[in-house]
Design brief:
Layout (H helix, E strand, L loop, with lengths): L3 E3 L21 H5 L10 H18 L1 H9 L9 H19 L10 H13 L5 E9 L6 H21 L3 E9 L2 E8 L13 H12 L4 E6 L5 E8 L9
Parallel strand pairs: 2-3
Antiparallel strand pairs: 1-2, 3-4, 4-6, 5-6
Length: 241
Protein backbone atom coordinates (compact mmCIF):
# COMPACT_ATOMS: atom_id res chain seq x y z
CA UNK A 1 0.00 0.00 0.00
CA UNK A 2 1.44 3.34 -1.02
CA UNK A 3 1.43 5.91 1.71
CA UNK A 4 1.94 9.62 1.91
CA UNK A 5 4.03 9.97 5.05
CA UNK A 6 3.92 13.22 6.96
CA UNK A 7 7.04 13.00 9.11
CA UNK A 8 8.46 16.24 10.33
CA UNK A 9 10.69 17.22 13.19
CA UNK A 10 8.72 17.95 16.33
CA UNK A 11 7.72 21.61 16.43
CA UNK A 12 7.21 22.83 19.98
CA UNK A 13 5.35 26.08 20.54
CA UNK A 14 7.14 27.89 23.32
CA UNK A 15 6.09 31.15 24.90
CA UNK A 16 9.10 32.19 26.92
CA UNK A 17 10.95 29.91 29.34
CA UNK A 18 10.10 26.23 28.87
CA UNK A 19 6.34 26.52 28.68
CA UNK A 20 4.57 24.56 25.97
CA UNK A 21 1.18 26.12 25.29
CA UNK A 22 -1.57 24.00 23.75
CA UNK A 23 -3.32 25.59 20.83
CA UNK A 24 -7.06 25.84 20.87
CA UNK A 25 -8.53 23.07 18.71
CA UNK A 26 -11.29 24.76 16.77
CA UNK A 27 -12.53 21.58 15.15
CA UNK A 28 -11.97 18.22 16.78
CA UNK A 29 -12.36 19.31 20.38
CA UNK A 30 -14.90 22.07 19.87
CA UNK A 31 -17.27 19.90 17.91
CA UNK A 32 -16.16 16.61 19.37
CA UNK A 33 -18.76 16.54 22.12
CA UNK A 34 -21.88 17.46 20.20
CA UNK A 35 -23.75 16.30 17.14
CA UNK A 36 -27.36 16.03 16.14
CA UNK A 37 -29.43 13.17 17.52
CA UNK A 38 -31.45 10.88 15.28
CA UNK A 39 -35.09 12.03 15.68
CA UNK A 40 -36.22 8.40 15.43
CA UNK A 41 -34.06 7.37 18.39
CA UNK A 42 -35.91 6.55 21.66
CA UNK A 43 -35.79 9.49 24.07
CA UNK A 44 -33.87 7.60 26.77
CA UNK A 45 -31.17 6.51 24.34
CA UNK A 46 -30.93 9.98 22.82
CA UNK A 47 -30.50 11.49 26.28
CA UNK A 48 -27.80 8.96 27.18
CA UNK A 49 -25.87 9.67 24.00
CA UNK A 50 -26.08 13.40 24.52
CA UNK A 51 -24.77 12.99 28.08
CA UNK A 52 -21.88 10.89 26.78
CA UNK A 53 -21.08 13.55 24.17
CA UNK A 54 -21.15 16.19 26.89
CA UNK A 55 -18.82 14.14 29.10
CA UNK A 56 -16.45 13.64 26.17
CA UNK A 57 -16.46 17.34 25.26
CA UNK A 58 -15.78 18.46 28.84
CA UNK A 59 -13.04 15.85 29.19
CA UNK A 60 -11.36 16.89 25.94
CA UNK A 61 -11.54 20.66 26.48
CA UNK A 62 -12.17 22.06 29.95
CA UNK A 63 -10.49 19.22 31.84
CA UNK A 64 -7.39 19.32 29.62
CA UNK A 65 -7.02 23.06 30.23
CA UNK A 66 -7.42 22.62 33.99
CA UNK A 67 -4.81 19.85 34.05
CA UNK A 68 -2.44 22.05 32.05
CA UNK A 69 -2.89 24.90 34.53
CA UNK A 70 -2.63 22.65 37.60
CA UNK A 71 0.67 21.24 36.25
CA UNK A 72 2.10 24.73 35.80
CA UNK A 73 2.01 24.41 32.04
CA UNK A 74 4.16 21.25 32.25
CA UNK A 75 7.20 23.49 32.63
CA UNK A 76 9.96 23.94 35.19
CA UNK A 77 9.45 27.69 34.95
CA UNK A 78 5.72 28.31 34.35
CA UNK A 79 4.85 31.11 31.96
CA UNK A 80 2.02 33.07 33.56
CA UNK A 81 1.09 34.81 30.30
CA UNK A 82 0.72 31.50 28.44
CA UNK A 83 -1.29 30.02 31.29
CA UNK A 84 -3.58 33.05 31.28
CA UNK A 85 -4.21 32.55 27.57
CA UNK A 86 -5.02 28.87 28.05
CA UNK A 87 -7.49 29.73 30.83
CA UNK A 88 -9.10 32.45 28.69
CA UNK A 89 -9.47 30.14 25.69
CA UNK A 90 -11.00 27.41 27.84
CA UNK A 91 -13.43 29.91 29.33
CA UNK A 92 -14.38 31.16 25.84
CA UNK A 93 -15.00 27.61 24.61
CA UNK A 94 -17.10 26.71 27.65
CA UNK A 95 -19.11 29.92 27.41
CA UNK A 96 -19.77 29.32 23.70
CA UNK A 97 -21.00 25.81 24.45
CA UNK A 98 -23.30 27.01 27.24
CA UNK A 99 -24.70 29.80 25.06
CA UNK A 100 -25.28 27.44 22.15
CA UNK A 101 -22.88 28.98 19.65
CA UNK A 102 -22.19 26.74 16.67
CA UNK A 103 -18.55 25.69 16.26
CA UNK A 104 -16.75 25.86 12.90
CA UNK A 105 -17.76 23.19 10.42
CA UNK A 106 -15.47 20.19 10.11
CA UNK A 107 -13.26 19.34 7.18
CA UNK A 108 -12.61 15.92 5.71
CA UNK A 109 -11.17 13.18 7.93
CA UNK A 110 -7.72 13.63 6.39
CA UNK A 111 -7.82 17.37 7.03
CA UNK A 112 -8.98 16.86 10.60
CA UNK A 113 -6.26 14.30 11.32
CA UNK A 114 -3.57 16.64 10.01
CA UNK A 115 -4.81 19.33 12.39
CA UNK A 116 -5.08 16.96 15.37
CA UNK A 117 -1.58 15.58 14.83
CA UNK A 118 -0.05 19.02 14.37
CA UNK A 119 -1.67 20.25 17.58
CA UNK A 120 -0.38 17.27 19.56
CA UNK A 121 3.13 17.70 18.15
CA UNK A 122 3.23 21.05 19.94
CA UNK A 123 2.93 19.26 23.27
CA UNK A 124 4.62 15.90 22.82
CA UNK A 125 8.26 15.06 23.48
CA UNK A 126 8.14 12.02 21.17
CA UNK A 127 7.85 11.73 17.39
CA UNK A 128 4.35 11.61 15.91
CA UNK A 129 4.04 10.37 12.33
CA UNK A 130 0.89 10.60 10.23
CA UNK A 131 0.52 8.16 7.34
CA UNK A 132 -2.35 8.59 4.89
CA UNK A 133 -2.92 5.48 2.80
CA UNK A 134 -5.57 4.81 0.20
CA UNK A 135 -8.42 7.32 0.26
CA UNK A 136 -11.27 6.51 -2.11
CA UNK A 137 -13.45 9.35 -0.85
CA UNK A 138 -13.45 11.83 2.02
CA UNK A 139 -17.04 12.77 2.85
CA UNK A 140 -17.70 15.28 5.62
CA UNK A 141 -20.21 13.55 7.89
CA UNK A 142 -20.91 13.41 11.62
CA UNK A 143 -18.54 10.47 12.02
CA UNK A 144 -15.64 12.44 10.55
CA UNK A 145 -15.28 14.77 13.51
CA UNK A 146 -15.89 12.00 16.03
CA UNK A 147 -13.06 9.90 14.59
CA UNK A 148 -10.75 12.91 14.67
CA UNK A 149 -11.71 13.72 18.27
CA UNK A 150 -11.18 10.10 19.34
CA UNK A 151 -7.76 10.18 17.67
CA UNK A 152 -6.90 13.34 19.60
CA UNK A 153 -7.75 11.59 22.88
CA UNK A 154 -5.66 8.54 21.96
CA UNK A 155 -2.70 10.83 21.28
CA UNK A 156 -3.20 12.61 24.61
CA UNK A 157 -3.22 9.27 26.39
CA UNK A 158 0.01 8.28 24.65
CA UNK A 159 1.63 11.55 25.70
CA UNK A 160 0.55 11.22 29.33
CA UNK A 161 1.01 7.51 29.93
CA UNK A 162 2.90 5.62 27.21
CA UNK A 163 6.45 7.00 27.63
CA UNK A 164 6.78 6.33 23.91
CA UNK A 165 9.54 7.38 21.55
CA UNK A 166 7.30 7.21 18.50
CA UNK A 167 3.57 7.25 17.81
CA UNK A 168 2.18 6.37 14.39
CA UNK A 169 -1.26 7.45 13.18
CA UNK A 170 -2.35 5.73 9.99
CA UNK A 171 -5.56 6.29 8.06
CA UNK A 172 -7.27 4.93 5.00
CA UNK A 173 -10.77 5.16 3.56
CA UNK A 174 -11.60 2.24 1.30
CA UNK A 175 -15.04 1.80 -0.26
CA UNK A 176 -16.56 4.22 2.24
CA UNK A 177 -15.05 2.51 5.32
CA UNK A 178 -12.60 4.63 7.31
CA UNK A 179 -9.88 3.06 9.40
CA UNK A 180 -7.69 5.00 11.83
CA UNK A 181 -4.96 3.18 13.75
CA UNK A 182 -2.82 4.70 16.53
CA UNK A 183 0.26 2.67 17.44
CA UNK A 184 2.93 3.51 20.01
CA UNK A 185 6.16 1.87 21.14
CA UNK A 186 5.68 2.80 24.80
CA UNK A 187 5.39 0.86 28.03
CA UNK A 188 2.10 -0.76 27.08
CA UNK A 189 -0.45 -2.07 29.56
CA UNK A 190 -2.70 -5.00 30.34
CA UNK A 191 -6.13 -4.18 28.84
CA UNK A 192 -7.85 -6.61 31.22
CA UNK A 193 -6.40 -4.81 34.23
CA UNK A 194 -7.17 -1.26 33.09
CA UNK A 195 -10.30 0.45 34.32
CA UNK A 196 -11.81 2.38 31.44
CA UNK A 197 -11.99 5.95 32.65
CA UNK A 198 -13.83 8.85 31.12
CA UNK A 199 -11.16 9.43 28.48
CA UNK A 200 -11.08 5.89 27.12
CA UNK A 201 -14.75 5.12 27.68
CA UNK A 202 -16.41 8.32 26.47
CA UNK A 203 -13.78 10.13 24.39
CA UNK A 204 -12.76 7.08 22.36
CA UNK A 205 -14.93 3.97 22.60
CA UNK A 206 -18.43 5.36 23.06
CA UNK A 207 -17.72 8.35 20.82
CA UNK A 208 -16.96 6.01 17.92
CA UNK A 209 -19.64 3.45 18.77
CA UNK A 210 -22.34 6.14 18.89
CA UNK A 211 -21.64 6.83 15.22
CA UNK A 212 -21.87 3.15 14.29
CA UNK A 213 -18.14 2.46 14.45
CA UNK A 214 -16.06 -0.10 16.31
CA UNK A 215 -12.91 0.18 18.42
CA UNK A 216 -10.31 -2.51 19.10
CA UNK A 217 -7.63 -2.00 21.76
CA UNK A 218 -4.51 -4.16 21.76
CA UNK A 219 -1.71 -3.75 24.29
CA UNK A 220 0.98 -5.76 26.03
CA UNK A 221 3.03 -4.59 29.03
CA UNK A 222 6.44 -3.49 27.78
CA UNK A 223 5.47 -3.76 24.10
CA UNK A 224 3.35 -0.71 23.37
CA UNK A 225 -0.27 -0.43 22.35
CA UNK A 226 -2.48 -0.23 19.29
CA UNK A 227 -5.94 1.33 18.95
CA UNK A 228 -7.91 0.58 15.80
CA UNK A 229 -11.06 2.53 14.98
CA UNK A 230 -13.30 1.70 12.02
CA UNK A 231 -16.35 3.61 10.87
CA UNK A 232 -18.40 3.74 7.70
CA UNK A 233 -18.45 7.27 6.30
CA UNK A 234 -20.17 6.50 3.01
CA UNK A 235 -22.14 3.68 1.43
CA UNK A 236 -20.14 0.93 -0.24
CA UNK A 237 -20.12 0.82 -4.02
CA UNK A 238 -23.21 -0.93 -5.27
CA UNK A 239 -25.01 -0.60 -1.95
CA UNK A 240 -28.59 0.52 -2.27
CA UNK A 241 -29.60 3.84 -0.66
Amino acid sequence: METNTLSRERAHTRTGGNTVRPRRDTRADSLGGFSHCDPTMPAAEALLRERERTFAWLHDTTLQALEFLAAGGYADDPDSAAMTRVAAEAADALRAMIEGELPPGPGSLVEELHEVVEMERNLATHDIVLEIGRVDCAPVVAGTIQLAAATAEALRNARKHAQARRVLVSCEIVDGMASVVITDDGVGFDPAAVVRGAGLRYSIVRRVENEGGVVAIEATPGRGSRITMRMRLAKARGQRP
